[in-house]
Amino acid sequence: MAAKPERPSPIEALKDRLPGESILDDLTEQLDRTRRLLTSNPETAADEALSRFAGEAEVEARIAADFAAAGPLANPGRFLEAHRLAIRALEVLDRDGSRDPTVSRRFGPLRGLVRRGVEFVAEYIVKTYAENVVSAMQRLYTRREPQAPRGSTERAHLSQARVEIERVAPGFRGGGIGVPALVAGGAAVPLLASASQYLGAVDFLTKPVLVGLFAGLFVLFGLLSSVLLSGAAVAHRRSKLIMRQPLAALWETVGNCGNPPEDDSRLFAAIAILLSAVVWIVIPIGGVVAYLVT
Question: Is residue 127 part of a domain?
């Protein structure tokens, strides 16, 4: 009697029916690895699984270098000098990081309003960045101080720097721009309520009103995109000019502590680019569709 042909496994049958075998290969490999882990030596199966991540040698070497650091400070003799320079840079950043941005003349009569908006955005980014830098310095000093032997020069330097950064930290929190924004928002509520009484009598389904509405949205989103992008550019340029070298010097004297914090200008630039896409793609298409269906 002839033996019955062996039926293919569900995974093999699925591979014959569907494209993209690489995904199914990965799934089959995971199932086989799990089966070996349950039926054979767990340590052998675990070693095979971990061997797939051998490409992280560079990261592991950096971790080993951090552990092998000789002391809490790479250059104790220059640490306090670098610390004082960073504090001075923070003062200059807080004062001049967003003040008096340059705005193009193409905005015409709206130039003053746009300048204020650019300064507002840049101020928010700069002050948030300064707060993050102070927090990073405070965290770094606090963690390195216990690593220094009692009575050592490194311990004294780190203790002095920690006390100083804790003393100035409250001045870099909040930024002071939330309150004006809240006041402006509260003042706008009754104005919008009064305007809604007049807008309630407007028929928004007529073509002239739709054209005016989409034109207004086009201008508004265009201005917002330009303000966000300009403010992010001003904040990034000045933050880099004022803080890059002092922070690099400080992080170098501490040693084996990663990279200094960066500002959030890239996030705001991404939002500005998204708004630009809305301005040039979504709003025109929506306006044309609304005009044709009415």
Answer: yes
Q: Is 62 part of a structural domain of the chain?
A: no
Q: Give the predicted TM-score (pTM) of the model.
A: 0.68
Amino acid 150: pLDDT: 94
Name the pLDDT band for 176 (thresholds 50, 70, 90).
Answer: very low
Q: Single out the residue of 220, 237, 236, 238 nearest to residue 268, CA to CA.
A: 236
CA gap 28, 36 in Å, rounded: 12
Domain tally for the chain? 1
Instruction: Work out the end-to-end distance of the chain between its first and last CA atoms, rounded to an integer number of angstroms.
Output: 78
Alpha-carbon gap, residue 214 to 203, rounded angstroms: 15
Neighbours of 257 (CB within 10 A): 19
Residues in Cβ contact with 252 at an 8 Å cutoff, skipping those fewer than 6 apart: 74, 75, 82
CB-based contacts of 233, cutoff 8 Å, min separation 6: 265, 269
- Answer whether residue 228 is part of any domain: yes
H-helix or E-strand containing 176?
A: none
Cα 95 off chain centre by: 23
Token readout for 172 is: 């870099």
Classify residue 232: in a domain, yes or no.
yes
Measured CA to CA in angstroms, residue 277 lies from 34, 217, 222, 269, 280 at distances of 47, 13, 10, 12, 5
